[in-house]
Task: inverse folding
């Protein structure tokens, strides 16, 4: 399920008077929208740096994500916000269910319900309840078609509510991607001619994996069969299920897994055979652990796990390489 940002209906986004550039695209979108609230919202509101307007925001980030968010908010408050007379007041609520409960209290008009925040992270189901009470503002006017085209259509689509407008912007959605250790890959590429384009298909990854095993094995001629694995996946089941669906086949049935099809054979060929040849690592752990120690070159995993990959390699002998 998508997790995104929603905004109060009282925010008026009818005019874009200034565009600000931040290091992160997330900052451009979210903090730019916050500023628009102060520039054009609440009727004839005029900004005054001596009497700043306070914008309230709820989120449930913790750990490193909260540090990043706090840094972005501090940057805004101390620069553009200070200059224009806008202060972002953030409340961090540890659990998403607590945010949901508070928002549902607001939607129901329960006694003791807190005041609706100007910006909040929430799930579409919760946003729908707020939408039905007329509490949300659409975000469509904040983006060009080109800007929205930079995101997966499914992510944007989940944020559109019954009237077809975008109310929930995806800021914490994840998908599976191919992570590549560029340091290790560049050496392999220079020696064998395998390029990143070679990894565009699973068949290409399988071919590269077998070649990598043979190449690393050849680096130690005095030791036989000591080649290294090239690739692994955090979920082989996902690869099989999604791959077969994309090929028009069926994998999961109510009674059993259907593995007798020609489509499944294709999945088998680029998963099991390279593993038997030593090109794939088969482990119960996460691919990020193997990546950080240089035991694999690339892997398929969730974008949500990118922080676990690190930016350096620590080899088994404790030597490191950036």
Result:
């Amino acid at each position: 399920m998508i997790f995104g940002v929603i905004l109060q209906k009282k925010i008026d986004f009818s005019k874009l008077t200034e565009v600000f550039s931040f290091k992160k695209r997330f900052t451009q979108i979210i903090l730019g929208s916050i500023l628009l609230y102060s520039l054009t919202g609440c009727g004839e509101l005029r900004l005054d740096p001596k009497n700043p307007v306070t914008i309230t925001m709820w989120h449930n980030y913790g750990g490193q994500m909260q540090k990043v968010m706090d840094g972005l908010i501090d940057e805004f408050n101390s620069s553009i916000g200070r200059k224009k007379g806008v202060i972002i007041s953030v409340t961090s609520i540890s659990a998403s269910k607590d945010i949901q409960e508070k928002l549902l209290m607001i939607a129901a008009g329960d006694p003791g319900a807190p005041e609706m925040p100007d910006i909040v992270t929430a799930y579409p189901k919760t946003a729908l309840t707020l939408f039905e009470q007329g509490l949300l503002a659409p975000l469509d006017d904040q983006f060009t078609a080109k800007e929205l085209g930079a995101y997966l259509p499914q992510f944007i689509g989940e944020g559109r509510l019954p009237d077809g407008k975008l109310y929930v912007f995806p800021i914490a959605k994840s998908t599976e991607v191919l992570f590549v250790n560029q340091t290790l890959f560049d050496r392999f590429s220079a020696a064998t001619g395998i390029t990143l384009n070679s990894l565009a298909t699973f068949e290409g990854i399988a071919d590269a994996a077998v070649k990598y095993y043979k190449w690393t094995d050849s680096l130690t001629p005095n030791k036989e069969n000591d080649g290294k694995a090239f690739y692994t996946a955090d979920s082989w089941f996902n690869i099989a299920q999604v791959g077969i669906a994309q090929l028009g086949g069926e994998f999961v049935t109510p009674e059993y897994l259907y593995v007798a099809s020609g489509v499944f054979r294709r999945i088998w060929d680029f998963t099991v055979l390279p593993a038997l040849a030593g090109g794939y690592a088969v482990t119960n752990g996460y691919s990020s652990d193997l990546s950080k120690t240089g035991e694999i070159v690339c892997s398929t995993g969730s974008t949500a796990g990118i922080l676990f990959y690190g930016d350096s390699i620590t080899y088994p002998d404790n030597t490191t390489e950036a």
In short: Confidence is low (pLDDT under 50) at residues 10-43.
